[in-house]
Structures are given as structure tokens and as C-alpha cells.
From TrEMBL:
NCBIfam families: ATP_synt_delta (TIGR01145), PRK13430.1 (NF009967). Pfam families: OSCP. It is found in: Cell membrane; Membrane. One of its GO terms (cellular component) is plasma membrane. This is ATP synthase subunit delta. Signal peptide: none annotated.
Amino acid sequence: MGSATTQALAASADALASAQVDLDTARELFAASRAVAGSPALSGALVDPVATPDARSALIAQVFGSLSQTARSLIDRLAAHRWSSSSDLVSGVEELAIRATAKAEPGDVEGELFQVSRIVASSPELEFALGSRLGDDGKKGELIASLLDGKTSAGTTLIVSSLVQQVRGRRVRALLARALRIAAAERGRTVATVHTAVPLTAAQSERLVASLSTRYGGDITLNTVIDPAVVGGVRIQVADDVIDGSISSRLADLRQRLAG
């Protein structure tokens, strides 16, 4: 990700912070992301460094004239900045849509996305069906929406059904993990994934959240994976940081020392 893209993403997040959005706005942004991804001519024109902001704004008004004023204004603000590549712009619109959903949906989007990712991870057939380049993208969205109907909030269903319509060569689990991080960031939270052999008690979870909040600052979203291979203790991942206090890790370290 280039510096231009990083600055553009920060600016789009700032624009969203002052906007009044709902799930219809988020749905429009997801549709805009698919439109930009599906048209190399459009994405190329929007990232063309020679094009003036006025020219880009006029193009957005022409292409997205049917969208609400709020959605169109957010896309306009996003396209006004420089992007490192057209694929970065597509990802940027998609991120804006995920953030808008997290802002508009009062439910536990992060927790639900994590649970959906676990369901996908447990079913290679489902992940293949959703991530395959074959088949109708719209049908994939309808499939996952029907599976999640009544089980997740409207916002989570919107995110997941929208993402599987625009996989772009990415693994579905990777898409969901990215969406989870973006949604958490929009709500000012940090995601911690904990691998443990047995479920944590409420008291253990509270102590762990307090400890991680002190270490990383801010609120912590705690996602737990039950993994018998851990044997005992816990393994925690926060972004690229891994805190491994599992017995399996200690045994592996001991074996390595004995072998060395």
C-alpha cells in the first residue's frame, strides 16, 4: 500500500466520521465498489493523476447519479485524493462501505463476522463455493444471505454478502478477517484472537481484556478459538503481534533445546 493510498484512506475515514449514514448508504457504497471494480476505464479515470478534482467529481455525478447524496458525496471525497493504483481505490471504496456499515449497525458486527469466518473455515466446500471464480456473483451473495438469515444482524449480512460478490482472487476467510479489523477500527477497538484448549471463564476473559487494553490502549474485541492442540495456556494474536503462552509452545521449545 503506497503512501498516497494511506493518506486517502485516512481522509475517507475522516469524511465518514462527520456523515450521517445508514445501512442503505452502506449498501450503495458496496454497489459503487463493485461498479468501480468491474470497469477498468472508470477506475483508471478516477485514479488518473492528470485528471482534475472537478473532472473526477463530474464523472462520479454522471456514473453514480442514482445514488443518495450522502453516498455520492462520500465517493466524491474519496476520489478527490490521489491513490497509488486503481485496485487500491476499489479496496478503498470497499473499506468505506464496511466502515459505514459498522457505524450504522448497532449490533455486534465484529463478533458476528468472527463467527461467520469460523463457519467458513470449518466448511471447505462452502469456502470454495463462495470464493470460486466460477458461478454468478449475485447468486453467491444470495446464498450466504440465506444461510445467515435470522442468525446475524442486517449489517453483518450486508458485509458478508457484498464481499463474496467481489472476491477478486482473495480467500473468503481473508476477506472476513479484513472486514472484522476495519469494523473494529471504525468503532475504536482492537481485535485480539485467543486460542485456548478450553473455553475461558467470564473472569478470565475480563482479566485478559483488561491486560490487553493496558498493553495496546483502547477497547479490546476478544475472539476465542477453541483449539485442543494448544493443550493448555493461551496463544493471543493482535494484528502482527503473537503472545504465545501455550503449553504446546513450551513443549516445542523444550524439544528444540533437547535436540540442540
